[in-house]
Amino acid sequence: MYKYERIIYWSTEDEAFIVEVPELPGCMADGKTVQEAISNAEIIIEEWIEVAKERGQQIPEPKGKLMYA
User: Fold this and answer.
1) Which CATH number applies to 7-54?
2) Domain named HicB-like antitoxin of toxin-antitoxin system: which ranges (predicted)?
């Protein structure tokens, strides 16, 4: 399991739980349950990192809880 912060919320529009990974731009997943969404997010995080490496992009270090204004 990666140590990136995840934000989980219910989307009425999508009728699914959404998981966003703010430290990895554009990285998000969904699922019918919280557990499914988190499991799907782990797969998407791995794929995000794999693609970033292929493109020679720097992989952000997990910072833990982010602060929001």
Assistant:
1) 3.30.160.250
2) 11-63
CA–CA distance from 41 to each of 11, 29, 52, 56 (Å)?
15, 5, 16, 22
* Closest C-alpha among 60, 17, 23 to residue 40: 17
> What are the backbone angles phi and psi of residue 56, rounded to the nearest 5°?
75, 20
pTM of the model: 0.86
What is the full DSSP assignment across 5-63? --EEEEETTTTEEEEE-TTSTT-EEEESSHHHHHHHHHHHHHHHHHHHHHTTPPPPPP-
pLDDT tens track for 16-35: 999 999 999 999 999 999 99
